[in-house]
Design goal:
Elements: H1 2-20, H2 26-36, H3 38-58, E1 64-81, E2 85-87, E3 97-99, E4 105-126, H4 130-197, H5 202-237, H6 241-244, H7 267-286, E5 293-315, E6 323-326, E7 331-344, H8 352-418, H9 424-458
Helix pairs in contact: 2-4, 3-4, 4-5, 4-7, 4-9, 7-8, 8-9
Subcellular location: Cell outer membrane
GO molecular function: efflux transmembrane transporter activity; porin activity
Signal peptide: 1-20
C-alpha cells in the first residue's frame, strides 16, 4: 500500500514537472516579454501620473479642513505722549485750562501667555470652468498614452517573433547541414571503394574529407548562433534558458491579404489626434483665467490670555507717585465664528493668462505638424511594405525552383560519380549548390514572414495567431 501511494504521488507531480520543462510557445514568449519590457513598464508608470492628475482634479471640489493652534509669550509696548489740550471754560464752574504738549508722557507695557486654536473649513464652489476643461484634457492625454503603449506592444511582439523565426531558421539550417553530412558520409564510402578500384585518385578522396571538415565547422557555427538566440530570448522574456533551448519551431510562410489600405487605424495617428484634442481643451481652460472663482469658508476660533500684566514705565498721573501695575483676570474668547462666501477675480494678471493660452496654441500646432508628417511617412511605409511582401512571395517560388534543380543536379552527379565519370570536385560543387539552394529557400521564407508582419503593422492589424 505504501508503494502504491508513492507511485500515485509520482504520477501526480509528473505532469507539472513535464510542463515546467516543456518548450515555451510563441504566445508564452510574447506574454512574458510584455511583462518584462522596461520601456512598456516606464510608459505604464508615466500613465499613472496622468491618472493621479485626473484624480486630483476630481478632488478639487472636496472640502478642505485645517486645524491650527499656537501658544507663546506675548509682550507689546506702546509709547503714549499727549498733545496740547485746551479745555474751554464752563462758567461759573470751570474757568478753563491749558494742558501743554507732553504733559502725559509714558510707556504702556502689556505682557502675558497667549494661546489660540482655530478650525477652518473651505470648499471651492466654482473654478471659473477651468477644472472641467482640464479634466477633459487629462482624459484625452491618458487615451493618447495608452495608444502609444499599444505601439510599444507591437514592437515587442515583432522583436520576439523575429528571434523566434531566427531560431526556426537556424534549426532549418541545422537540418540542411545534417542531410548534407549524411550524403557526404555515403559518398565518402563510395570514394573509398572507387579508390580501391583505381577509379579516383587519393586527391579526389581528400577533397571529400575537406568538404566534411567544412561541414563540421558550419555545424559548430550553428551552435554558436543558437546559443546567442537563446540568450536574446532569455533577456526578452526571462524564461529559463533550458526551456528556450527546447524550442524547435518550423518556418512556414504567412498568408496575409491587405483588405484595408487605410493607415488611419495606426496608433501613432490616433495618439496624435487625442493629443490635439487635449490641447483644445487646454486652450479653453487657459482662456478662463479671467472668470471669477468662488469659495465658501467657515472657521471657529478660540483665544485666551492669562498671567496678564499691564504696566507703565512712569507715574500714571503727574505728581501721583504711582505707576500702573495691573494683573487682570484671564481673558477668554470662545467661540469666534466666521462663515461666508468669497470670490477672487483676476482683472489683470500681467498677461500671464494670455501667455499660457498662446503656449497651448503653439503646442497644438506642433502636434498638428507631427500628425501631417507622420501620415506621409506611414503612407510611404505601407506602400514599401506592400511591395516587399509581394517580392518576398515571388522569391519563395524562385528559390523552390532553384532547390529542385540543384537537387536533381546532385542526384545526376552522384550517379556519374559512382560510375567514375565525374570527379569529386563536381560532386562537392553539386553538394554545395544544393546546400546553398536549401538555405536560400529557408532565408526567403524567413524574409517573407518578416515582410508579412511589417505589412500587418502598417495597417495596425498585427495578428499573433497568424504568426
Amino acid at each position: 500500500m505504501k508503494t502504491f501511494n508513492s507511485f500515485s504521488k509520482l504520477l501526480f507531480f509528473f505532469p507539472a514537472f513535464a510542463f515546467a520543462q516543456s518548450a515555451p510557445t510563441l504566445q508564452e514568449l510574447i506574454d512574458s516579454a510584455l511583462i518584462n519590457d522596461g520601456t512598456l513598464t516606464q510608459q505604464t508608470l508615466e500613465n499613472k501620473y496622468t491618472q493621479l492628475d485626473n484624480q486630483k482634479l476630481k478632488d478639487i471640489f472636496l472640502p478642505k479642513v485645517e486645524v491650527s493652534g499656537k501658544a507663546g509669550y506675548l509682550f507689546t509696548s506702546a509709547h503714549l505722549k499727549s498733545p496740547e489740550i485746551n479745555l474751554p471754560p464752563v462758567p461759573p464752574i470751570f474757568p478753563g485750562a491749558n494742558i501743554p504738549e507732553g504733559r502725559l508722557n509714558n510707556n504702556l507695557h502689556i505682557s502675558g501667555i497667549s494661546t489660540m486654536a482655530k478650525a477652518e473649513a473651505s470648499v471651492l464652489l466654482y473654478s471659473g470652468g477651468k477644472v472641467k476643461y482640464l479634466k477633459e484634457a487629462n482624459r484625452e492625454k491618458s487615451i493618447s498614452e495608452n495608444l502609444l503603449m499599444q505601439k510599444s506592444r507591437d514592437e515587442i511582439i515583432s522583436d520576439v517573433s523575429k528571434a523566434y523565426d531566427q531560431m526556426a531558421l537556424v534549426q532549418e539550417s541545422k537540418n540542411v547541414l545534417d542531410e548534407g553530412k549524411k550524403r557526404l558520409d555515403i559518398n565518402r564510402k563510395t570514394a573509398d571503394k572507387a579508390l580501391g578500384y583505381g577509379l579516383i585518385t587519393p586527391y579526389d578522396r581528400k577533397k571529400i574529407e575537406l568538404a566534411q571538415a567544412n561541414l563540421n565547422s558550419k555545424l559548430v557555427e550553428y551552435e554558436g548562433k543558437k546559443e546567442l538566440l537563446i540568450t536574446q530570448l532569455y533577456l526578452l522574456t526571462e524564461i529559463d534558458r533550458e526551456r528556450i533551448a527546447q524550442i524547435q519551431p518550423k518556418l512556414e510562410t504567412i498568408s496575409y491579404e491587405v483588405l484595408d489600405q487605410n493607415i488611419e487605424n495606426r496608433v501613432e495617428l490616433q495618439a496624435l489626434d487625442h493629443g490635439i484634442k487635449a490641447t483644445d481643451y487646454k486652450i479653453k481652460a487657459e482662456e478662463r483665467w479671467w472668470v471669477p472663482k468662488v469659495q465658501a469658508q467657515t472657521s471657529v476660533s478660540y483665544f485666551e490670555l492669562f498671567n496678564n500684566n499691564i504696566s507703565t514705565s512712569k507715574e500714571l498721573l503727574p505728581n501721583s507717585g504711582k505707576k500702573l501695575d495691573l494683573h487682570p483676570a484671564n481673558l477668554n474668547i470662545l467661540p469666534l465664528v466666521q462663515a461666508g462666501v468669497g470670490f477672487k477675480w483676476d482683472i489683470f494678471d500681467g498677461n500671464e493668462g494670455k501667455h499660457l493660452v498662446e503656449r497651448a496654441k503653439i503646442e497644438k500646432e506642433i502636434l498638428q505638424n507631427k500628425r501631417r508628417d507622420a501620415s506621409k511617412q506611414l503612407n510611404l511605409n505601407l506602400a514599401n511594405n506592400r511591395t516587399n511582401y509581394t517580392i518576398a512571395n515571388s522569391l519563395i517560388q524562385l528559390k523552390e525552383k532553384s532547390r529542385e534543380i540543384a537537387k536533381q543536379g546532385l542526384e545526376q552527379v552522384e550517379k556519374e560519380f559512382r560510375y567514375g565519370t565525374k570527379t569529386s570536385s563536381a560532386l562537392i560543387d553539386a553538394e554545395n549548390d544544393l546546400e546553398n539552394a536549401e538555405l536560400e529557400l529557408q532565408t526567403a521564407i524567413f524574409n517573407q514572414r518578416r515582410s508579412a508582419i511589417e505589412l500587418m503593422k502598417s495597417t495596425q492589424n498585427l495578428q499573433i495567431e497568424k504568426l
